[in-house]
Amino acid sequence: MARVRVESLRKEYDVGTVVAVDGLDLEIGDGEFVTVVGPSGCGKTTTLRMLAGLEEPTSGRIEIGDEDVTDVHAKNRDVAMVFQNYALYPHKTVFENMAFGLRMSTDLDAEEREQRVVETAEMMDIAELLEDKPDELSGGQKQRVALGRAIVREPDLFLFDEPLSNLDAKLRTTMRAEIQRLQDELGITSVYVTHDQHEAMTMGDRIVILSDGELQQQGAPTDVYENPTNKFVGGFIGSPSMNFIDVSVEQVAGGLRLDDSDGNFSFTLSAAYATANDAALGRGRYTLGIRPESISIADSQSQNAISAGVDVVEPVGSDNFLHLDIGPEFIARVPSDVTLEAGDEITITFDESDIHLFDADSGVEVLGHDQETQPATPP
C-alpha cells in the first residue's frame, strides 16, 4: 500500500495546442479508494495513464509512497492497472494471463507463482476457469480474470480505467460490489476512473471531479452532492441533473425575490435567509439551481407555490419524473403514486435551504454552503 501525491501535473499534446490535464494537485491516502469522474475529454484517463507510467507528464510531479516516480518507467512502478477492454492475451489460458505479470516483474519461482495464482483465482471465484482461454469466457468472467491478474501482483496501487463499461447493467452492479469488497479486504490504494457519476458516487471514499483537464471539486460523495462548488459540479452530479433557471435578485418587503425573465418563475427568500446570506447576495443576475428530488407538489395557496404545466411524465419504478414547462428543461422527481398526465396543470414548491445560487458569469456558488474548493488532505 502507498499514498499518492500529484503536484501541478500537466499533459500537453500537439506542441501545447491541446491541454489534457492542467495543473492537477491531488493527494490520495494510503489505502484510500478515490473515484475520478468527468465528461469525455476531461483528462481523467490521461491522469490515470500518467500515474501508471504509460504517459509522460509535460510538467509536474508524481509520488507513489515516498518515491518520486515522475520519470520512472511503467514496468518499474509497483502499479497494477485494470483496463476497459480487459487486455487479456487471447492465446494464453486464464492461468497464464494471471501468472504473466508475476513472471515478468517478480523473482517468484514457478511454484510460488502457481500458488499465488490459485489463491487469487479462488478469491475471485474463477478457479475452475484457469485452463480456459479468454474467448471461452463471458464478459463478467473476463472482468474477473482482469481483476485477478491485478490482484495477484499485490501492488502498492490499483488503477481502474472504466473497467465495467462493457458489462450489462445487472452485472455492473454485481461487479461494483465485488470491487468494493476486494478493495476493502485488501486495503490497497485505488484510483477508479469512470464517466458514470452513479459509479463514482457509490464506490469511492472520495470523489474527484474534472472538467477540461482541471480539478473542479473533490470530497466525500455526499458533500459534493449537497454542496457543489460551481454550476458544472451541480449539473454533473445527480440524476436527473440539477435544474437551472436564470434569475434576477431584487429586494422586497420581507426578503429577496428571485424572478426569471419570462415571468414563469418567482420565489421569495425569507428575511432571515436573506440576512444570513447578505454578504454573498446583491441585486443582479444569478443562476438558481434546485435538484429534482427537492421539489414537491404543493397547494396553490402555499407560500412560494409555482404554477407549472406537465409536458412529459416518465415512470421509472419507484418515482415519476415530471418534465415541466419552466425554463428550457425542468424536472421534478415525485413518488410513483403521484399520477399525472401530460397537459395537467400543477403547483410545485421547494425549501429555500435546498436552493443553490451560482454567479451568472463565473458559475461559482455564492450562497456560502460549507463546501470544499481546494484539494483536501485525505484521511
Task: Map the helices and strands.
Layout: E1 4-13, E2 18-28, E3 33-37, H1 44-52, E4 59-64, E5 67-68, E6 79-82, H2 94-105, H3 110-123, H4 139-151, E7 157-161, H5 169-186, E8 189-194, H6 197-203, E9 206-211, E10 214-219, H7 221-226, H8 231-236, E11 243-252, E12 255-260, E13 266-270, H9 271-276, E14 284-290, E15 296-297, E16 306-315, E17 319-324, E18 330-335, E19 345-349, E20 356-359
Parallel strand pairs: 3-8, 3-9, 6-7, 7-8
Antiparallel strand pairs: 1-2, 1-4, 4-5, 9-10, 11-12, 11-14, 12-13, 14-20, 15-19, 16-17, 16-19, 17-18
Helix pairs in contact: 2-3, 2-4, 3-4
Number of helices: 9
Strand residues, percent: 25-35%
Q: Would you identify the CATH architecture of the largest domain?
A: 3-Layer(aba) Sandwich
Order the strands across the largest sheet as they lie in space: 6-7-8-3-9-10
The CATH class of the largest domain: Alpha Beta
The tally of domains stands at 2
> For this structure, what is the CATH homologous superfamily of the largest domain?
P-loop containing nucleotide triphosphate hydrolases
- Give the distance, in angstroms, between the N- and C-terminal Cα atoms: 15 Å
Describe the main β-sheet briefly: 6 strands, mixed
Which fold name corresponds to the CATH topology of the largest domain? Rossmann fold
Uncertain runs? 370-379
Overall pLDDT score: 90
In one word, what is the shape?
elongated
Percent of residues in helical segments?
Answer: 10-25%
Q: Tell how many strands the DSSP assignment holds.
A: 20
The H-and-E topology, N to C, reads as: EEEHEEEHHHEHEHEEHHEEEHEEEEEEE
CA radius of gyration is 25 Å
User: Structural class, please?
Assistant: alpha+beta
Assembly of the depicted chains: single chain
